[in-house]
Amino acid sequence: YLIIDEYDNFSNQLVLVQDEGLYEELTSKDSFFKTFFKVIKAGTESGAIGRVFITGVLPITIDDLTSGYNIAEIVTLETEFSSMLGFTENETQTYLESLTEQYHFDSGIIKTISPLIKSYYNGYRFHAKQETIYNSTIISYFLKKLIMGNGEIPRESIDTNLRPDLSWLKRLTRHEADTKELLDKLMFNSRLEYDQNRLAAKFNARQFFDKAYYPVSLFYLGMLTIEDDFWMTLPNQTIKEIVIDYYNEINRIYTVDGYARHFEKFLKDLDLSKLFAAYWNHYVGQIPAQAADKVNENFYRSTFYELCKRYLSRNFIFTIEMNYPSGRSDWEMTGKYKTPYENIRYLVEFKHFRVEESRRKKLDILESPFPEDLAQLSKYELDILQTFPKNKITKFVIYTIGSQNYRFFRVEEKRKSPQKIIA
To answer: Alpha helix (H) ranges present in 151-271?
Structure first.
């Protein structure tokens, strides 16, 4: 049995740096690489090799090896094998339960960890009708850190060695204008439209850099996954964070100078309104002019989430679009176990309005959030308390108005006056 892992590692490096001459030399005609696979083919025909199993990243090199190794059956996109590429929900829960028992963690940690890792590592789909699966590499990194920290939830959600930098995306798109256009689409919409005919088990290096193939190229690189037959989407929060980092870097939005004092102060007063004001002044104030008309709800909640996670993740867990029976919450932060903020949970509903719409709705003189937003928050609150009855939940509604303004509301609960009892 012959097993080859990452058979295309070296050739992918050549493709990404666009060294087409060396790539051609190594993979075409009578190159050593093609000759190697001819030998393997001969070995399987003679019986010297019983079975061959090959894994790689991109479907480019296999396309160039067709004539030398035309006995290969590519199973990447076959429904029957799609769950091989990660952990299913059941496998992940079994993994968690096993670790909890083996390392004598509090059994209640599963209730906290399960929705968190689902948000960070689940979401990958290699067929439109397949259940979503977890990225086995990065979830194993998280759980290793959890064990090393004796049950403390790690600050980082991905190994820095696995976190690609912006340069590889620039190499894919080749021109900075194309890089910015691609990142704008991912930042504001979290997805790209794709052509099913281009989602093939193999295609050549030239097509990899074709604009029409961007969604498929990003799919094979692990940045996008299949949402349905029409759209590729960002699979989870971990990938969203990477995209936000790219967006900040290419647009020169600074996320260091001037921020620390605001987050330091928040840990003392827990005033989310002041923290959001600091984000609006420091971060939103740097948004490039051409993005001003594109900003939306997804942009604001995602960038605020990423900034808060960057500075406060030692004490809080941050999540966006958490799934509940009543729907998906927009933005949450929860105090970590064994910190002074344990059981504190902030629940935020975001809504975005264009300037004209905000005027029609008279947002500038609004005294309290719209009833439908309050009702939705109340439903989420009930769902959360079913699982975490000790949580002290504070609810907020944030209305953003274009790139110019916002309204911030803390939801004040109405308390019933105590009744007088006459004996």
So the answer is: 166-173, 176-189, 205-208, 214-220, 237-250, 260-269
Residue among 49, 22, 47 nearest 36 (CA): 49
Report d(CA 408, CA 400) in Å as an integer. 9
Backbone angle region of 402, left / alpha / beta, with phi > 0 → left and psi within -120 to 50 → alpha: left
DSSP SS3 for 235: coil
Query: Residue 119 belongs to what H/E stretch?
Result: helix 109-121
Q: Global pTM?
A: 0.89
C-alpha closest to that of 220 among 205, 237, 242: 205
CA terminus-to-terminus distance, the chain: 88
Place of tokens 């059994």: 107
Distance CA 283, CA 244 (A): 12
Cβ pair 255, 283 in contact under 8 A: yes
318-350 pLDDT tens trace? 999 999 999 999 999 999 988 999 999 999 999
Distance between CA atoms of residues 97 and 106, nearest Å: 11
The answer for residues whose C-beta is within 8 angstroms of residue 10's C-beta and 6 or more apart is 26
Cα 105 from Cα 150, distance rounded (Å): 8
- CA dist 58 and 75 (Å) reads 13
Per-residue model confidence as pLDDT tens digits over 92-112: 999 999 999 999 988 788 888
- Alpha-carbon Rg of the chain, whole angstroms? 25
